[in-house]
Write a structure and sequence with these properties.
Order of helices and strands: HEEEHEHEEHEHEHH
Radius of gyration: 20 Å
Number of helices: 7
Strand content: 5-15%
Distance between the termini: 69 Å
Structural class: alpha/beta
Strand order of the largest sheet: 4-1-5-8-6-7
Helix content: 25-40%
Length: 287
């Protein structure tokens, strides 16, 4: 009987290993292939003294609420959560040297997607990071967890802020997802995020859910998400962080329900950004 039980346990372990090994190996390969921290400066400037400029975009706002759900008889608006995270992220990033941070909004104001990217372009930013929280596209999956939306294309305009938008976006996404996982967040189980190490690459194509397929000038498929697409066209690595699912009560109560929880998300974002861009933390003077 004991021998039979040991054999069953071996079989179960092998089954579990076979189930999770492909995804684990895939994530390791992706991480190794892209994760050499990029030098945090504008490729266009060619100057090591130039400050790195990061644009933090609090998603939605004003007339655009984003996801809305009611908990404890209170309506929770995604736009408010996004702004709280963005404002705290700005403070967290102030801990790093040679860095300038701008925000697309600091209040509950309405901004179009093109307006947001134009703010970044006008300020000659090096990176654009949009702050969001998720809602279930497919409620049957009971989705939860984090993901980062990045470009699916290797298109590289002539005027760019970094040598390789695709790789830089991947580095940022992987690093941020890793820090969010350290808080206990799972990889989101929609749009293939959980099988791609938390990264979502969605093409503007029939396969990606669009009515027809559109292309960049090099013939590669456009990005489905407008901010990612506008960023690529402007030569700016642009990512969208979906921190947690507002539509999932467990995610909400664990990661979104308090200021302390939102601050931890912002801190994780900052640490992920700093790791990917090889930022140096400011020295604290002894008093």
């Amino acid at each position: 009987m004991r021998k039979d039980r040991r054999e069953r346990e071996k079989i179960q372990k092998k089954a579990i290993w076979k189930r999770f090994m492909p995804a684990a190996v895939s994530c390791m390969i992706i991480a190794i292939s892209v994760f050499t921290p990029v030098k945090a400066q504008s490729a266009a400037s060619g100057s090591a003294d130039k400050k790195t400029i990061i644009c933090i975009d609090a998603g939605h706002g004003g007339e655009t609420d984003g996801a809305t759900y009611t908990y404890d008889e209170t309506i929770i608006y995604e736009k408010d959560l996004n702004l709280q995270i963005a404002l705290q992220l700005e403070q967290e990033l102030k801990k790093y040297e040679n860095l300038e941070v701008i925000l697309t909004r600091r209040e509950d104001t309405t901004l179009g997607l093109k307006e947001r990217m134009q703010i970044a372009v006008d300020q000659n930013v090096d990176y654009f990071i949009s702050i969001h929280n998720n809602a279930a596209a497919n409620p049957e999956l009971s989705p939860k967890g984090c993901m980062v939306l990045v470009t699916n294309s290797h298109y590289q305009p002539k005027e760019t802020q970094v040598p390789d938008i695709y790789e830089t976006s991947s580095q940022l996404g992987l690093s941020i997802v890793g820090k969010l996982q350290d808080l206990g967040l799972l990889l989101g189980n929609e749009l293939g995020a959980d099988s791609n190490c938390g990264l979502v690459r969605r093409p503007y194509s029939i396969e990606g859910g669009a009515r027809r397929t559109y292309y960049y000038p090099d013939g590669s498929t456009l990005d489905y998400y407008a901010l990612v697409r506008y960023g690529v066209e402007a030569g700016i690595p642009s990512i969208i962080i979906e921190h947690a699912y507002l539509s999932n009560e467990e995610d909400y109560r664990t990661y979104l329900a308090t200021k302390e929880a939102l601050d931890l998300l912002a801190k994780a974002d900052a640490e992920g950004i700093a790791e990917a861009l090889a930022l140096t933390e400011k020295e604290i003077e002894n008093k």
